[in-house]
Amino acid sequence: MIAQTDEVVACIGGVVVDRKARVIEPLHPGTSNPVTVRSCPGGVVCNIARNLAKLGCRTAIFSVVGRDAKTEHVLDDLETPNLDLSGLSLSSARPTASYTAVLDERGQLFIGLADMAIFEELDEAWADSIASAVARCRFWILDANLPAATIERLLRANKGGATVLVDPISVAKAARVRHVLNEIDVLFPNAKEAAVLSGHAVATRDDLVRAAAEIRRLGVGTVIVTLGEDGIYLDNGKQGKFIQATPARKVSDVTGAGDALVAGYAYAMIAGERYEPALWGLAAASLTVETEESIAPNLGRESVLERIEASLKRSETGRI
After folding, report:
1. CB-based contacts of 24, cutoff 8 Å, min separation 6
2. Which CA distances in Å does 173 have to 105, 130, 291?
3. Given phi > 0 = left and psi -120 to 50 = alpha, else beta, which region is 141?
4. Pseudo-torsion of CA 47, 52, 53, 59, nearest 10°?
5. Tens digit of pLDDT for each residue in 151-182?
6. How far is residue 253 from each of residues 76, 146, 168, 258, 296, measured CA to CA in Å?
7. Lowest-pLDDT range of 2-16, 186-200, 247-261, 304-318
8. Any idea what the Cα angle at residue 113 is, between residues 95 and 265, rounded to 5°?
9. Do residues 11 and 44 lie in contact, with contact meaning Cβ atoms separated by under 8 Å?
10. CA–CA separation, 86 and 72 (whole Å)
11. What are the φ and ψ backbone dihedral angles of 281, each rounded to 5 degrees?
């Protein structure tokens, strides 16, 4: 059963065709490797929106897709309750963005290949064109697939009183949000992105703490540095703490885990759930790495809550 929230969350950024090429045997760089290949809709805010919809949040995606053949399949796959696609624009000049993830035999990312030229069309004029629609949403989630000028336009001119959560996506794209950190309420960098945004090298846990503190000094309300299998570091200005990852029963594929973490955190914050939002995010990520899908088929409020409580029970009894 889905516990419906009244809020509509604006998810602004990239809709992408994800391709996962997973090697069958140990990976050998510089030569041919046998793989299995799967395709599905993806993109950071697209995945976040789909996860939020499964958790019970009403979501609206604002992005651009091409008029190419694969777009119809993407839109068909995105048709789901709680997910509004009316904010998607169509490009006649470029194909839908694509991302190819090459995964090793353990399901860990070896290299990611991105064709994202279409997002150049999400310019300042586009930001103004969606302003009235996103103004009706009290919560925004942005990714750094948007150009820097577009992000600045949205957050400086059109934000109003919205609560804004941002995923910087990559080291290369993190710099796009550097000049609007004081407009961001919750930021989800990984350690390398935190180094870019803070201007401090991150080699140790102490470095990480200093980098998060610097990002907060630059204006971000809460910084959540994602650390993969090591969990997260959270700095909300009141306290800084490392929180361990929620154990997964197995790790099949890490793709989409970070998106699930953001969605779980956002859902708990919006819905006012018991247990802190970070635990919801970590539990959602745990469910996601157990499947080869970018969106865990069994993800929902009850499954995430069950995973949180099982993890807390293990901690109380001293079990690993």
Report:
1. 33, 34, 35, 36, 105
2. 28, 22, 27
3. beta
4. -90
5. 999 999 888 899 999 999 999 999 999 999 99
6. 24, 26, 21, 12, 11
7. 2-16
8. 90
9. no
10. 14
11. -65, -45
Nearest to 186 by CA among 214, 161, 166: 166
CA distance 122 to 275: 37
**C-alpha neighbours within 13 Å on the C-beta side of residue 140:** 25
Question: Cβ of 81: how many Cβ atoms within 10 Å?
Answer: 10
pLDDT single digits (tens) 81-125: 899 999 999 998 999 998 888 988 887 888 888 889 999 999 999
SS3 257: helix
Domains annotated on the chain, with CATH: 8-14+42-89+117-314 (3.40.1190.20)
Q: How is residue 253 written in tokens?
A: 């594929």
The number of angstroms, rounded, from the C-alpha of 239 to the middle of its chain's C-alpha atoms is 24
CB under 8 Å to 317, separation ≥6 — which residues?
none
User: Do the strands 232-235 and 222-226 form a parallel or antiparallel pair, or are they unpaired?
Assistant: antiparallel
Whole-number Å distance between alpha carbons of 254 and 19: 14
